[in-house]
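Allow me, if you will, to draw on your knowledge of protein folds for a short while. I am sending you one protein, given as its amino acid sequence and as whole-number tokens for its backbone shapes. Kindly check, if you would, that the fold set down in the tokens agrees with what the sequence suggests. The record follows directly beneath this note:
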Amino acid sequence: MSNDQFLYPSHDDFVQEAIIAGRPLADAVRELQGIYKADNRPWVVGFSGGKDSTVILSLTYYALKMLPPEERHKHVYVVSSDTRVETPVVVDMIRQVLDSVNAQAIQDQLPMTAHSVTPQVGETFWANLLGKGYPAPTKAFRWCTERMKIDPVSEFIKDKVARFGEVVVVLGSRREESSTRAQVITRHKIDGSALGRHTTLHNAYTYMPIELWHADDVWEYLMSAARPWGGSNRVLFELYKDSNAGECPLVIDTNTPSCGNSRFGCWTCTVVTHDKAIEGLVNSGEDWMLPLLQFRNQLHASSLPENKTKFRNYKRRTGKVTFARGAIDDDSSTAAKHVPGPYWMKYRREWLKLLLEIEKGIRETDREIELIGRDELQVIRQQWLKDPNEPDWVDSLPRIYGEVYPEDPVEWIKNDAGAFSEPDAAILNALEAERGVPAVLIMKLIDTELSFSGLSRRKGILDELQKVLEQDWGGLDEAMERRAIPKVTDSHKTAFESLKADIDGLLQ
């Protein structure tokens, strides 16, 4: 079947004749129209670019288009979350859909607009990983989802709630996707209504028109007729073909599982061990993405337990060495596990340069792609200059960028420079070698003093200096010796059991 050949000559013919999930498709459209007309709450349609959200967008667009103009009484907002690290082959497709919907909705006189939301520049993947040194996300520490997906969409929804009082969020969630998703849908369903309550946002309600559909139903819909705003879903089908990658829905709460294996997820996702999605794309001919896969694998390797001490500082960003207290082990001693801090600056510099080199290499194949935003570079530079453990005295980021893009100078913000320069660093390092006092400690003490200079009252300076001095300035071994947890002896056990007996007696 070619790109413009469908089972039905038009979307309208398909809707009138098809039966999907045991129900006439025309009935589903009428239900959509009835819920739309029932009140004045605007709709927010979640669109991730995947198959399920494409069905939802198509159904909503068609249902709205089939209403008489006078009944199109409220606005429908289509929102798509761009994390800025989306799988590159999907980015252009999503943008094309949003642009097409916006253009065609004007021609069809529909009250519908499509919007793309992004995380704040200080909360992007690279601002956190390269800038602050956050470790690559894992199942236990999936810091990226809330910052990059949930928060931008939630802010968009909350803005509409503030304007209109209440909104209805239309989603492509299906019970078949997972048992967890089915439980969440059921738990928040409103009795006697097609709507449910949003899991976290007040005055936001959810509507899931295809919650009972199966994957075959979804593909039957997508491949039977042209999209109501024009064009075909053939590109979408090609992305899913020969892949066991799943769906990556629009994420609106923390109950949504990772979509690390989805072709519609982030190419940087390290929550999964193997990124089958990117591997599948490379194997299907997108070999220009191989450097992205290799880079992603480097990040994943850095998150493995056996590699943490190599890639990550022994101190947290607070300047303190942290231990997580465990349970009492077989030796009757309390186990304390060291919790490493951010990535060492050395690796952040190396990864930034490699990322820029990969980006430049891809651009040389006539693909306009930006793997890291220039606004993100500005933020990362500031974070490096002010890093709490390893301040970047030499201001290395502009140099790194210049080595990769000598022909593309960036106007770096003039006031980004810190209080210390490279010559200052040399002096402080010499003092460290001579006196044994860490150069960073001296820098922080001087920096604290400077922060109070010019103030008429210097109240609090001693407290701030004390906080600096109380940080862990020795090595990890010294910190572990200082914080060694004593072995639980027999006398400790006897005292504990006696205390427990006294408490039990009081409670009886």
About this structure: Residues 143-164 form the longest helix (22 residues).
